Amino acid sequence: QVQLQESGGGSVQSGGSLKLSCAASGDTRCMAWFRQAPGKEREAIAAIDSDSSTTYADSVKGRFTISLDSAKNTLYLQMDSLKPEDTAMYYCATSFNLPCGLDQGAYDYWGQGTQVTVSS
Fold first, then answer.
1. pLDDT digit string (tens) for 51-109?
2. Dihedral (CA of 47, 75, 45, 56) sign
3. Which of 6, 67, 73, 104 has a CB 3.0–4.6 Å from the CB of 114, allowing a cystine?
């Protein structure tokens, strides 16, 4: 059983930055960040494998950076150049399925989420 706890969300103005954290208890393999805006479907935005290979959705490529501190078993998402359309609940998740990517159905364990609000 894996437990995931996100933190670091908040409110920021357009163009600003936030860094999200996801503390994991238990073994992990692929880890990823997802988000869901009100009235929209959940969207996969970034994934990282245990060898540090990463995958990004086009909507965040070049602005967001996913990283993993294996010693702390903590996943991060550095979000720069934030836009109002980045406003959403952000979730981390982990998967033991391969390949490690952005397929939501492959992820087994999910956190409760942390809210990010970007104002214009």
1. 899 999 999 999 999 999 999 999 999 999 999 999 999 999 999 888 899 999 999 99
2. negative
3. 6
